Amino acid sequence: MKLLVFNVKHSENLGDGLLACCLETALRQCGSDVEVETVDLAGRSEVGTAVRARGYVLALLGRMPAPARRFVVRKVLDRRLRASLPDWNARIAAADAVVIGGGNLFQDDDLNFPLKIGAVLDCVQRQKRPLSIYAVGVSRNWSPEASALFGRLRNLDLVHVSVRDEIARDNWMSHFPEGGRPHLVPDPGLLAGSMDLPRPLERCVGNNAGLCVTNPAILRRHSDKSARDIPMLRARDYCEVMQVLESRGWCITLFCNGAREDAAFLEAILAVPAVRKMMASGVVQVAPRPKTARELLSTIDAFDAMAAHRLHACIAAYALGVPVVGLGWDSKVEGFFRSTHREAFLVTDRSTSSEEIAGLIDQVATHAVDPVELRATVAKAREGIARLHADLSAFLNAGSVVS
């Protein structure tokens, strides 16, 4: 069985690559006859091929009204997608089935994902291949254009549909009320604990807290809440949390998921005089910008506790047994903390003080991830992928939709 998987495997945000690698590996483990190939929806062939001016583009888009943003995104993507379609058609024709997932792919980010996935759905229909949607995130509000583009899946042999949390399932049902309820499966990134890791960062003496830095432009652009409700948006916020952690005896490591816009914001944090002082004293260190998902995991594995906006930094930490505080900015982060029964360690209000956030990091360090619950969650993640494989096998063998 040859499976062609579409997601954003080669994003510089290495959390996307992490879940793609986990999904690929687990699918191959379903049988010796399974062949898996992943295609990046943005046309990337490797990490590091992002647009060099991405930070500038994001800032520019952030200042535009929504109709203008959608117009610009459509203009840019139309040309790229036309260039990708011959290759996608050929690859889909050579596959037995197509999988879209995982990741937060069913979101209307100014038509970015709707246009890309709509193009994939056209190719799938043209080549008459069965389709599965696996472990995706789903946003609540879609524009009419996004609804029409995503809605093209109604014309296909849809073999399997699964989402990664209850919020995504409710949103899916609101968009596709005529279909059945999607399966609920854990994010494939939860299998990260089984990956071989490079040697972790050298640990500091004492407790080591990781702070995952995310560029506020990303949070504002993709959040499903107002920016005024997002915690830790400013360089000053990170500085203040670090100062409180220092007073409580913590060492702090700043790191990012790999995206260059996050690395640029990290540099802005390092320019704050108080942060430079903490670095000079050895209290604060900076992890090298990771180039692979394994390097990101190795960084996270060295922490006693951590705080992050990035969903897959939180997922990776949980998978590695590192207690994590979630900095809530989007329903997908809330959905993950709900699904793992760790809502007590989710910050959802920008008014939460630096002292309170540092206090949560203190608290979460004494509330380790339950190893029994972690094993059960990982087992469910494997079972979900096995179910995907079984549904595709049954369809290909019998020629009928089973899920």
Mean pLDDT: 91
Give me the secondary-structure category: alpha/beta
Could you describe the largest sheet, including whether it forms a barrel?
Answer: 6 strands, parallel
- Assembly state: single chain
Distance between the termini: 18 Å
Uncertain segments are none
What name does the CATH topology of the largest domain carry? Answer: Rossmann fold
Overall 3D form: globular
In N-to-C order, the SSE pattern is: EHEHHEHEHEHEEHHEHHEHEHEHEHH
Strand content: 15-25%
CATH architecture of the largest domain: 3-Layer(aba) Sandwich
The share of residues in helices is 40-55%
Classified by CATH, the class of the largest domain is Alpha Beta
Number of helices: 15
Strand order of the largest sheet: 2-1-3-4-5-6
Radius of gyration: 21 Å
Number of strands: 12
Number of domains: 2
Q: What's this entry about, in short?
A:
The chain has 403 residues and is of the alpha/beta class.
List the helices and strands and how they pair.
Layout: E1 2-7, H1 14-28, E2 35-40, H2 54-62, H3 66-93, E3 97-106, H4 112-127, E4 131-138, H5 144-150, E5 158-163, H6 166-175, E6 183-184, E7 207-212, H7 216-222, H8 235-247, E8 250-255, H9 260-270, H10 273-280, E9 284-286, H11 293-300, E10 305-308, H12 311-319, E11 324-327, H13 331-339, E12 346-347, H14 354-365, H15 371-398
Parallel strand pairs: 1-2, 1-3, 3-4, 4-5, 5-6, 7-8, 7-10, 8-9, 10-11, 11-12
Helix pairs in contact: 1-12, 2-7, 3-4, 4-5, 8-9, 8-14
